[in-house]
Amino acid sequence: MPQPRLFHISEQPGISIFTPRPSPSHFDNVTGDVVFAIIDQLLHNYLLPRDCPRVTFYAGKNATDNDKNQFMGNTTAHYVIAVENGWYQQIKETILFRYEFAPDDFMLIDECAGYYVSYKPALPIAVTVIDDIMAALLSRNIELRFMPSLIDIAAAIRNSSLQFSLIRMRNAKKDT
After folding, report:
1. CA nearest neighbour of 56 among 82, 36, 74
2. Tens digit of pLDDT for each residue in 81-95?
3. Tell me, what DSSP letter sits at residue 103?
4. Does the pLDDT value for residue 26 go beyond 90?
């Protein structure tokens, strides 16, 4: 099996070394400071401004037909990303940097989210500037949905059989 291509997305240019840090989220199999990376297949989940809340999902092998129809029935895309309308302008204006890592020192910790970690410092082997997030997203096999609020869809997706990531939801608008 070929090794995956691993990336880290940042709004910060010129990072020459990624130093392990405490994980911002709890993972049972993370036992110290780490460098996070994501596989290319799910890179789209991070092609947004860092603090932008998002609900991302796709139909994995255990997805029910009912959930696929309810949440993905009208799309030919394999993945969906939902973001709040209020983030549109910041998405248009933000510049991202895609750092690529050699996979040698990384281990998979979450297959659904595509997360890999390394306990060692990581040196980028390539850097790509992403100055048009919308174009980068829409060049991938995703549907991008803009919504007034993510609260209801996050709750529904969390209770579905779909594979999902709820990212930066602490920044989501509360329903009024």
Report:
1. 82
2. 999 999 999 999 999
3. S
4. no
- Token pair 């248009």 in the structure block, residue: 92
pTM: 0.92
pLDDT of residue 1: 65
The whole-angstrom separation of Cα 38 and Cα 96 is: 15
Concatenate the DSSP letters of all residues of 61-96 into one string. Answer: TT--HHHHHHHHTT---SEEEEEEGGGHHHHHH--E
d(CA 6, CA 36): 9
Number of Cβ within 10 Å of residue 52's Cβ equals: 20
pLDDT tens profile 6-18 = 999 999 999 999 9
What is residue 145's DSSP assignment?
E
Q: Is 172 left (phi over 0), alpha (psi -120 to 50) or beta?
A: beta
First to last CA, the chain: 49
3-state class of 53 per DSSP?
A: coil
The Cα–Cα gap between 30 and 109 comes to: 8
Amino acid letter for position 114: G
Token pair in block for residue 62: 């255990």
Helix, strand, coil percentages for the chain (3-state, nearest 5) = 25, 30, 45
